[in-house]
Amino acid sequence: MAAVQRILFLNQRRRLRRRRNPRGQLVRPNAVRRLNLDLLDLPDDVLCDRYRLPREEIMVLLGLVQEELTRRTKRNYALSPTIQLLTTLRFYATGGFLQTLGDAYGLSKAAVCKCVHAVTKALLRHAPTYITFPRTRDALQGTKIGFHAIGSIPGIVGVVDGTLIPIHTPSLLSPIYTCRKGYSALNIQVICNHQGLFTDIVAKWPGSTHDSFIWANSGVCQMASRGAFAGGHVLGDSGYPLRSFIHTPVLNPQTEAEERYNMAHRRTCSVVERALGILKMRFRCLHKSSGGLRCSPERSCAIIVVCAMLHNIAVLDSVGPGSSRPAAGPLARPRVLEAGRRSARSAAGPRGRPRVRSLAALLQIVPKSAADQQR
């Protein structure tokens, strides 16, 4: 009789727990839903639109992080590496609330947060493979030729610029994260090549830090001061100091040559400005319209670096920002450079085109073509 009463008591307590925690009843249905959901069977255009990467690159990323994301046990319906990766990519692409993202995959808010943190940490280890500054002589020469085709300025190995990424106001030292625009942010420095690829990124300084301070304490600046650019230099805006290895525009141009130089400087620096705009359009979690990154500054820095790495992968695969379909054909890969040429020509106008061409003739800096150099 005592055993029967004990069983009845346990059943009653179980029913009360279910009433108090109705979410516990959704664990098994959500797990079955995830097991029967194969998101990689979606069409290519849908994958590019939702996750900003084609199927082949998603599979490559899955191979990089699969071993680290695989759970040691299958108890409690452990999440598969595929679900964790796709959930994180969807967060990067939309920047939406974690609860809303979790409802689409049958996950709780805490589970989505853990997925984003684990996948970001796993991908961050592979960032140096995709974000590399040219160091060999051939790589530097190719970058110089590419930039010369845009603005007719020789010897450019990269263009540097800074951007503000909004974040949630931290509880500690919140004033130093307030940027000049009045909201909490991180000041990120990037260096871009002629193809729109990020070759260097510094993501660790609060929003109140000046661009020149970030540049002076960066590894590329230390490299350039030792003469590692093989006679090359970097272009930057007026916020950076003028040095032999970084050239800035003339503040008060007095001669026609100085005006032509400023025009060529603007055309060349527009590459990094477009690259930053494409980065924020492709991964909306970095854009101000999404409300900023609602996590700690340390995790925000890791997310920014991983998004820059994924941006390079998308550019190499000729995937446009927010495009529902990857570009195809032999002319798809250098379209960032071609778009830069078209925008620079339209911005210069009919009088600006011969001016930039005459700048190269005036300074006698027109190098030989690649075919002549091979001969």
Automatic annotation (TrEMBL):
Its cofactor is a divalent metal cation. Residues 321-355 are annotated as: Disordered. Its main location: cytoplasm. Residues 160-312 form the DDE Tnp4 domain. One of its GO terms (cellular component) is cytoplasm. It is found in: Cytoplasm; Nucleus. The keyword Nucleotide-binding does not apply. Keywords: Cytoplasm, Hydrolase, Metal-binding, Nuclease, Nucleus. One of its GO terms (molecular function) is metal ion binding. InterPro entries: HARBI1-like (IPR045249), HARBI1_animal (IPR026103), HARBI1_dom (IPR027806). The keyword Metal-binding applies. Transmembrane segments: none annotated. Transposase-derived protein that may have nuclease activity. Does not have transposase activity. Belongs to the HARBI1 family. This is Putative nuclease HARBI1. It comes from Astyanax mexicanus.
